[in-house]
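Handoff note, outgoing to incoming analyst
You'll be picking up this chain. Sequence as last confirmed:
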Amino acid sequence: MMYRFRPRGVCSQEMLVEVDEQGVVQSMQVYGGCSGNLQGISALVKGMPVQEVVQRLKGIRCGFKDTSCPDQLARNLERALEQK
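Most recent structure output, in case you need it:
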């Protein structure tokens, strides 16, 4: 399943995350934001179970902000799982 998220309160503008039937991230693309960091996060979460992504990334802050791109990814994945 492909999930499309619009992050809030961060530099990135859109996240596309592909998750297989077993709940494992197959790919992630981010538009906007810090390209190098987001490419790194995308590479790290590939092959990781969604629950682990949420557990590891939820709550990470960016500077003075209450959220970050990794936190937005985790929050949106968590919401998607709850609605499933």
